[in-house]
Design brief:
Blueprint: E1 2-7, H1 14-24, E2 36-44, E3 47-56, E4 59-67, H2 70-87, H3 89-94, H4 103-108, H5 111-116, E5 134-135, H6 137-147, E6 151-156, E7 162-167, E8 173-176
Parallel strand pairs: 1-2, 5-6
Antiparallel strand pairs: 2-3, 3-4, 6-7, 7-8
Helix pairs in contact: 1-2
């Protein structure tokens, strides 16, 4: 498993890099050697934001955290990601062919994990159909705000593709432009 540690607008010294690599090594039990990881550290006011991302085959695992120092932020992000994996272990195990790289982890089986595991399927409680409208990203953001939604699917009149605008945690907006 290869992990890249990046400092955006900050320097990551060797001691911090070694400590992060040691903490990240716990994911070797989840992922096989094809996994690629990335840890991004970025100052955010008096705090530090840590974003931990793993790409395994075509799937991404991602968690982030903000804390007073870099190591605490990384530890919290790692704990969040580990929690996400444990929480969804049963669902991933049911689709073993999609998560074959985690087979060793599934076989290892932690008794405490099995007890805490909720073995229920994702439930879709509502379906809604609508006519997709052609608009610019700015018009889509305005429409999303007027509807009081956190995201809006639209047909971009700039690219001719189906896109999504969404509101980010910081209050800014994001635009998803799929490649197909």
């Amino acid at each position: 498993m290869k992990v890249e540690i990046l400092g955006l607008d900050m320097r990551v010294n060797d001691m911090l890099r070694t400590a992060i690599e040691q903490k990240i090594s716990k994911f070797e039990r989840f992922f096989d050697e094809s996994a690629r990881g990335e840890v991004k550290l970025q100052p955010e006011g008096p705090s530090v934001r840590a974003e931990v991302t793993f790409k395994v085959q075509s799937l991404y695992f991602r968690a982030e955290s903000v804390a007073g120092d870099a190591m605490t932020a990384v530890e919290q992000a790692i704990d969040n990601m580990e929690g996400q994996i444990r929480k969804n272990k049963a669902r991933m195990k049911k689709r073993l062919k999609d998560y074959s790289y985690m087979e060793a982890y599934f076989d290892y089986g932690d008794a405490q994990d099995e007890e805490r595991q909720e073995d229920e399927e994702f439930r879709i409680i509502r379906r809604k159909g609508f006519e997709i409208q052609e608009m610019t990203p700015d018009e889509a953001i305005l429409q999303m705000e007027l509807l009081g939604h956190s995201f809006l699917l639209f047909l971009s009149n700039e690219t001719g593709k189906v896109c999504v605008v969404y509101k980010r945690h910081e209050g800014d907006y994001g635009l998803l432009e799929p490649e197909y």
